[in-house]
Specification:
globular; eight-stranded antiparallel sheet; 31 strands; binds guanosine-5',3'-tetraphosphate; about 550 residues; alpha+beta
Length: about 550
């Protein structure tokens, strides 16, 4: 059987409404659900492993991501799907730490970067922004940060690779402040410049300086030792005084960590370390528990709120199709928002009012699927056989509730799609419409190109691979894609779109996004946006979420 584990427990078994409410509130309070946002190669896999290792969720490094195998593969999960024929995914890592349960959601990067990467951020309560000490803020970090800002997700910053030569700490703080309009409030501060890391100061407690001693070879985790201020000054000498000075300077100008500012997205607590040597990893883990907010009441589409101790509700933030034609199921990733999820319970899909049975519910972490029996606010559950569910769906029990729709994000890749066999045009149209509805890609139409040649828009090119594969194997209409030379989209009004299409001066094209009827103006680059604004100063050009 594909669903392992015991059958669903029979007969409700909540132990009464009151205790179920208490349980939900209690379990929510001790959960932290977060994601790491970073640019490829900043060290996300290394940090993920280090965090999990530190929390002792896994026994050996390398067990989480198996990074070695994945280089050069078009897509992680497609390769895995093809090799195993099942929907394996390490979408979530769950581990216990102190008295808490941490859910670390994966934000696929590298070749897997796609609209799903952004959608994950709709399911977390906090993000750890991982920065390479030598590179500072990079493209993908900017995009992911934009989404966090838009969604009000608070951000903790971890400056990684401090064991290697890099930029000056103050300069990095300045960059965060300037580019993200986010006030950095260092909680730890490095003693020793990048490449010569010796320890960290703790802004909260002068007697909590840490000394890190790396084992020869550098592979092993560094030993961590706590020093009081007097000892630290003696041990670190000038490096210590310099660090104290820098930290004072920052605290004087910007103030220290302020929970209210942090939760409102105005400031970010900053930590320094080196994931590879396990430097600063424990401190970061503690920060996630101590600073990141637990799951809280969630806004509803009607303006109301769903408290965590209300009846069960959850949000489908990602759908994954099985690529194996003989196992054509869909897995829905559901974040529990309120109440207790119990495998086997029947829930309602808010969009249709139809029931959905959760007999096959899985935890979706690690290398394998295992059945999940109970899940609480902040947890992620994988629902198999979920073909009738869609990204953005609300599932609930009891009275109808619905969360706001999942936004669509700024696409950066555009391609005309055509059936290779025009006799299959019916299958073609049906397939494209369904992939649009499922949120696999965004479908655009233009007056110029006509309905026969819809344009697909995606955040990452992997989304096109999925379209090709599913059109051929699922809808029996193989397709040909012709890439268009646009990389940037802005929202405009219909008049602005017409102006763009008629203009001989501005290189660009306007199209209508089928799903929400927004007119998108497509441009090859930012420079062309400028020329549009000069020629048509009265036409609006609004950035889309995560536009750059
Ligand atoms: P990613 O998931 O964000 O893409 O990054 P990943 O963890 O794969 O790290 C990218 C590279 O940076 C890896 O080296 C990794 O070992 C290195 N790295 C990560 N954290 C640190 C750190 O704290 N200090 C130093 N010095 N290096 C770090 P690689 O040689 O590209 O890959 P690998 O062969 O070691 O896997």
């Amino acid at each position: 059987g594909r669903a392992r584990g015991s059958e669903a427990p029979s007969g409700g078994g909540y132990g009464g409404v009151v205790s179920s409410r208490t349980t939900a509130a209690h379990e929510a309070a001790r959960r932290r659900t977060f994601a790491v946002i970073s640019h490829p190669d900043a060290g996300k896999s290394t940090l993920t492993e280090a965090l999990a290792l530190h929390a002792r969720a896994i026994t050996s490094a390398g067990a989480v991501h198996g990074k070695g195998d994945r280089r050069g593969v078009t897509s992680d999960w497609m390769a895995m799907e093809q090799a195993r024929g099942i929907s394996v995914t390490s979408a979530v890592l769950q581990f216990d730490y102190r008295d808490n349960v941490l859910n670390l959601l994966d934000t696929p990067g590298h070749a897997d970067f796609s609209e799903d990467t952004y959608r994950v951020l709709a399911a977390v309560d906090c993000a750890v922004m991982l920065i390479d000490a030598a590179k500072g803020l990079e493209e993908q970090t900017r995009k992911l940060f934009d989404v966090c800002r838009h969604r009000g997700v608070p951000v903790i910053t971890f400056v990684n690779k401090w064991d290697r030569p890099g930029r000056e700490a103050l300069e990095l703080m300045d960059e965060i402040e300037r580019e993200f309009r986010l006030r950095p409030t260092p909680v730890t501060w490095p003693i020793g410049i990048a490449g010569e890391m010796r320890g960290t100061l703790d802004a909260r407690d002068p007697d909590a300086a840490l000394r890190y001693t790396r084992a020869p070879g550098g592979e092993k985790a560094a030993a961590e030792e706590r020093l009081d201020a007097a000892t630290a000054r003696e041990v670190f000498g000038d490096d210590y005084d310099r660090a104290v000075e820098e930290l004072e300077l920052l605290t004087e100008t910007g103030g220290g960590h302020d929970p209210e500012d942090f939760l409102a997205g105005r400031s970010t607590p900053v930590f320094f370390g080196a994931a590879l040597s396990n430097i600063g990893v424990r401190v970061l883990l503690d920060a996630v528990v101590d600073l990141a907010p637990p799951p809280a009441a969630r806004r509803l589409a009607d303006g109301g709120e769903r408290p965590v101790d209300a009846e069960f509700s959850g949000l489908v933030f990602k759908m994954q199709a099985n690529m194996d034609p003989s196992h054509r199921d869909r897995i829905a990733f559901l974040r529990v928002c309120s109440g207790v999820f119990e495998r086997g319970m029947t829930v309602t899909r808010a969009a249709s009012g139809r029931p959905f049975a959760t007999k096959y519910a899985h935890s979706v972490f690690g290398q394998d699927r295992t059945s999940v029996e109970l899940a609480y606010p902040g947890d992620v559950v994988g629902l198999v056989n979920a073909a009738q569910l869609r990204v953005g769906d609300t599932l609930h029990t009891g009275k109808r509730v619905e969360f706001p729709p999942m936004p669509t994000f700024a696409p950066e890749h555009f391609a005309i799609v055509r059936p290779t066999d025009i006799a299959k045009s019916k299958q073609f149209r049906r397939g494209i419409a369904q992939l649009d509805e499922e949120g696999v890609v965004q479908v655009l139409v233009s007056d110029i190109r006509g309905e026969q040649a819809p344009v697909l828009a995606a955040v990452g090119p992997m989304q096109f691979d999925v379209v090709r594969h599913r059109m051929e194997h699922e809808f029996s209409s193989p397709v040909r894609l012709e890439m268009l030379p646009y990389h940037l989209a802005r929202a405009t009004d219909p008049a602005g779109g017409e102006a763009l299409n008629r203009s001989r001066l501005v290189h660009g094209e306007a199209m209508l996004r089928v799903k929400d009827k927004v007119t998108l103006a497509l441009f090859p680059s930012r420079w062309h946006v400028g020329s549009f604004e000069r020629e048509f100063p009265d036409s609006p050009l609004e950035p889309l979420i995560a536009a750059h």
